[in-house]
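Chain A, query sequence.
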Amino acid sequence: MNRLPSLAVLLCAAALASCEKNAVQEIAGTVAESRIKFFNFGVNAPGVNFYADETKMTAISSGTGVESTTGVTYGGVGAGGLYSAIEPGQHTITGRIAATTDKDKPISTLTTTIEDGKHYSFYQSGFYNTTTKTVDSFIVEDPLPPTIDFTVAYVRFVHAISNANPLTLYAVNASGQETAIGGPVAYKNAGAFVAIPNGVYQLRARYTGSSTNTITRADVGFSLSRVYTITARGDITVTSTTATNRPFLDNTINR
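Chain A, predicted structure.
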């Protein structure tokens, strides 16, 4: 006999709770299907935080929980090398100084259109101009293979050295067999993803028609079903093998 009144009381209480300011609300929405990755490959460029319009896309926290003033430094990749979600449409991408001096000053600016469901990589590149406090930038699409062959790895080449001619990347396996990873790639461009057997390779980048290796990197491992981008960065005129701004072949996993 008392069950119906009790049920009514419970329903009323639930209704009132749903109207309270502190009631749990459903705020989940759809996550953007487009993705972007950020690289600071501008020689001598300061550490930056990357923005899409006024939305901060990358930042580094310190041990105290306060945002670090280091940002993504030269040779670094934002968000630990992971992609960040971004809404499709036109965006102005900027790299802004993370340090206290000139805090949030844009040193690279690029307006681009992000297409729905596609992946991209944004690069600061070339040489940082200490007078104008600017550096080159460019963006490339990352057309990841729609279907993955789990018996191979996928590799492509991106050229981010402003004082270097078009380069072709070669991968040499343990038997000495050399495979071209696509054709010549000019500055601010990317080659196509090429399927190669998994294994450990010696990487070589050369100018068109030359047998001399311009940039090399030893013992780079490519795993089955993984997708990689090898990017040339630095100053092509540097001959030191230890200098920070030496020509270098960066290896980043796309998937």
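The two ends are 63 Å apart (CA to CA). The mean pLDDT is 89.
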